[in-house]
Design brief:
With about 600 residues, this protein is α+β, with helices and mostly antiparallel strands. The chain has 19 helices and eleven strands. The longest helix has about 45 residues, at about 555-595. Keywords: ATP-binding, Kinase, Membrane, Nucleotide-binding, Serine/threonine-protein kinase, Transferase, Transmembrane, Transmembrane helix.
Length: about 600
């Protein structure tokens, strides 16, 4: 056993023992460096028969939990495989097992049980909605922790399994007698989401009646057999959950959640049916109304579960961003396919491409980059296209959510303008900047963003006409106007105190334009002094720019700042050379005239 006060793995100080089971001891530990408490489960080789088998099971459990992220599930922080011992470091959950609550206080308040049931429905829906659905299989009061704030946590994933459609039956019989569904016993078929619904129904039965279904009389009577004050609607729900045939139960946690949220309506229907039997017409009418309301209710419940699943996909993507980029992208794509009208998945996928997935763009060399590669651009276009069995594109669905569509248009416009293939694609940015430029201000897209989109859209328009001449041989682009709009963007970004990245990108565009188009600006009447004023402002702003270490994009900002100072210096040399060449040409022209006059 671990000694109180000892230090585990050089960072976890054992404070005291908080629990002990048949094969493990649980300790409260403190990570003094992080000033946070954790729970450490210890399984010792000398205290367990078949230690290797137990260890293998614990490894499977911890590997499974590491992939799960939900507010009603504990997180596995660390696994320490020592000599003769196996330690699991996890969230410390302050509270009590519901089993101990029942033992001390008996049957629980109906409203409390319903609230716990809703939370458990939500976490089960999350487990069932994963790409490889997780079937928990051992729901019971002793596996549910009640926290002081009323929140419940589902613990102990020792019997959970990932669902495989190709399996005809489970290979082992796991679960707890009284709570386990019939199919959890050998030869009864495969466990699936409906198995967890049965186990939850049995758990609710125990919580509401105080009678353990795993003890005599080994039968779950209707809950009102024990207490007539309990809801008849809730009684119907539990009876449906615990049907022996899975087809007769609720088929999803969405259905069960809706029923729990409307159990009083089931009571009302029950009483109305008893008192109004003779009015057959109205009974039929009432049932039709209830059926319609039920259909709508199932839709709303499904919508609620869809939202939870969508959020779960985004959380999974965020977790996998640095460890498994390809699977991360897959989760974003699944979220988009699940709800193409919601903009968050598109935005986060684009952000991931720009700031995290840059191995195709040079990050392997140690450079901090923000590049929107051709491959990534194709993935975004595919995400906005038609997926699944839909006849409309995802972009068409997203358009119905105007605020989200405008925000994505702005983000995409900026990405194309500055970051496509590392240099920007102004022509490709026009569509998206044009959409953002015409948007109404929202919480997602404020007036400053819209103004910036309008300014950049003008710049993008110029690029379509660069080098193009009309029938008279004149340039289609007014470089004087082009310069004014370029300066306007710089003044807008710096005066508004915009974020560092926007300011850096704006001055990057200035430097690039002067390097490639200084002669065109000079011919349009832009003076050397005007160009140098902007370059000098850029140098002053960059030197005063304080980049906070550890902040988001700090590495990128610092590197871009250093590179930009070099680019501005190069642009200054180009400007100097441009006007020197012009002066020489003017002097030579003037000298020629003097010679002629002489």
């Amino acid at each position: 056993m671990l000694e109180i006060g000892s230090l585990v793995d050089g960072k976890y100080k054992i404070l005291n023992k908080i629990g002990q089971g048949g094969m493990s001891v649980v300790y409260l530990a403190m990570n003094e460096r992080a000033n946070k408490q954790w729970a450490i489960k210890e399984v010792r080789k000398d205290g367990v028969k078949n230690f290797d088998v137990v260890k293998q099971g614990l490894t499977v459990e911890t590997d499974l939990l590491k992939k799960l992220h939900h507010p009603n599930l504990p997180s596995i922080i660390d696994v320490i495989d020592g000599d003769g011992t196996f330690l699991i470091v996890m969230d410390y959950i302050e509270g009590r097992h519901l089993e101990s609550v029942i033992q001390e206080y008996g049957a629980q308040n109906q409203e409390d049980v319903i609230e716990w049931a809703k939370q458990l429905c939500d976490v089960l829906a999350y487990l069932h909605s994963r790409i490889q659905p997780v079937i928990y299989r051992d729901m019971k009061p002793s596996n549910i922790m009640l926290k002081p704030d009323g929140k419940v946590m589902l613990i102990d994933f020792g019997t959970a399994r990932e669902f495989k459609e190709t399996s005809v039956a489970d290979t082992t019989c796991l679960g707890t007698q009284g709570y386990a569904a019939p199919e959890q016993y050998g030869g009864q078929g495969q466990t699936d989401a409906r198995t967890d619904i049965y186990c939850l129904g049995a758990t609710l039965y125990h919580l509401l009646t105080g009678h353990n279904p795993g003890e005599p009389p080994y039968e779950m009577y209707p809950i009102r057999y024990w207490n007539q004050d309990l809801s008849s609607g809730l009684e119907e729900i539990i009876l449906k959950c615990t049907q022996k045939n899975p087809e007769d139960r609720y088929q999803s946690c969405g259905e069960l959640l809706y029923a729990l949220e409307h159990y009083k309506e089931l009571d009302a229907a029950y009483k109305r049916k008893q008192t109004l039997k003779w009015r057959s017409f109205w009974c039929v009418f009432a049932l039709a109304v209830l059926a319609g309301a039920g259909a709508m209710g199932f839709y709303l419940a499904e919508k609620n579960v869809t939202a939870n699943t969508y959020d779960a996909y985004l959380k999974e993507a965020e977790t996998l961003a640095t460890t498994n980029p390809e699977e991360c992208i897959g989760y974003y794509q699944r979220a988009i396919a699940l709800n193409p009208m919601e903009g968050k998945a598109y935005e986060e996928l684009l952000h991931f491409f720009l700031w995290q997935k840059n191995e195709e763009s040079g990050s392997s060399s140690g450079r901090a980059v923000c590049v929107f590669s051709d491959t990534e651009e194709q993935m975004i276009r595919k995400a906005l296209g038609i997926t699944g069995d839909r006849r409309r594109s995802n972009e068409e669905y997203l358009k119905e959510n105007g605020a989200a569509y405008s925000k994505l248009a702005y983000d995409l416009g900026i990405a194309y303008f500055y970051s496509y293939d590392g240099t920007g694609n102004k022509a490709a940015s026009r569509k998206w900047l044009g959409i953002a430029a015409e948007a109404e201000p929202t919480e997602k897209l404020n007036e400053k963003n819209i103004t910036r989109a309008q300014n950049l859209y003008k710049i993008a328009e110029y690029y379509d006409s660069l080098g193009v001449q009309n029938q008279a041989g004149d340039s289609m682009v007014s470089y004087a106007d082009y310069w004014k709009d370029l300066v306007k963007i710089l003044e807008t970004d710096t005066a508004s105190g915009d974020n560092h990245v926007n300011i850096l990108l704006s001055y990057k565009e200035l430097a690039a334009c002067l390097v490639s188009k200084a002669t065109d600006f000079e011919k349009a009447g832009v003076t050397r002094k005007q160009m140098e004023i902007q370059l000098n402002k850029a140098v002053a702003i960059l030197k005063d720019m304080e980049i906070v270490k550890g902040a988001a994009n700090a590495d990128y900002e610092q590197e871009m700042k250093e590179e930009l100072l070099n680019h501005i210096a190069a642009a200054g040399e180009i400007v100097e050379a441009t006007f020197n060449t012009s002066n020489i040409a003017t002097a030579e022209q003037g000298g020629g005239e003097d010679t002629a006059a002489d």
